Structure to design on (217 residues):
């Protein structure tokens, strides 16, 4: 966004934190989209169960579209984040006076809350996956309805996403205290490696789930 708008670049802590919050927002939006895809997949299975074929085909298309959009959002968020950081790193240094601005501390609190929102979204998303697997299992065992593909690994995926959500909460807390310490020292830079590793884990988890929605695996 910074590059696209040709905005002035400065190594301001508030701008770095704003970029971080935007990145976390992309992750949450992607999770919401994939959750919608899982919900649509459940509706599609119910449509098959009720033998409403024309509705089933439409829902199947929407579920696949949601899965693809979710992955695109993750990739877009990653690229935007890294390009914006590179753009900021090439900007001018801010004066020491600006590093003691109370608004920087407020920005760090907003960033911490963004981490918390992302953690909650991940945990809820993990439970959605778990419930979806339980739904498929009950549909197969109680109603003897044939389910396409093997969905046993959904339990592991859901549990993994829940664990990532808990780790996100811990990372957000540690990052918050690190941010406050650096602001007190008059300096702040984004933990690029942390966001790279975190984004890669989220991307891989979403990619595997997308393959499930697309019935590739």
């Amino acid at each position: 966004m910074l590059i696209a708008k040709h905005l002035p670049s400065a190594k301001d802590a508030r701008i770095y934190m704003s970029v971080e919050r935007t990145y976390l927002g992309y992750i949450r939006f992607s999770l919401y989209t994939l959750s919608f895809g899982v919900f649509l997949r459940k509706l599609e299975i119910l449509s098959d169960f009720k033998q409403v074929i024309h509705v089933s085909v439409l829902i199947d298309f929407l579920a696949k579209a949601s899965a693809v959009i979710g992955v695109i959002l993750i990739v877009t968020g990653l690229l935007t984040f890294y390009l914006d950081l590179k753009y900021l790193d090439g900007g001018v240094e801010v004066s020491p006076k600006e590093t003691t601005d109370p608004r920087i501390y407020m920005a760090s609190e907003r960033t911490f809350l963004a981490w918390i929102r992302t953690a909650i979204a991940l945990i809820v998303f993990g439970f959605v996956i778990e419930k979806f697997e339980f739904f498929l299992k009950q549909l197969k065992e109680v109603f003897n309805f044939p389910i396409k593909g093997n969905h046993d690994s959904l339990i592991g995926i859901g549990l993994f996403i829940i664990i990532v959500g808990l780790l996100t909460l811990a990372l957000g807390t540690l990052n918050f205290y690190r941010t406050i310490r650096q602001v007190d020292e008059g300096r702040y830079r984004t933990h690029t490696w942390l966001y790279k590793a975190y984004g890669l884990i989220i991307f891989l988890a979403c990619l595997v789930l997308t393959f499930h929605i697309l019935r590739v695996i």
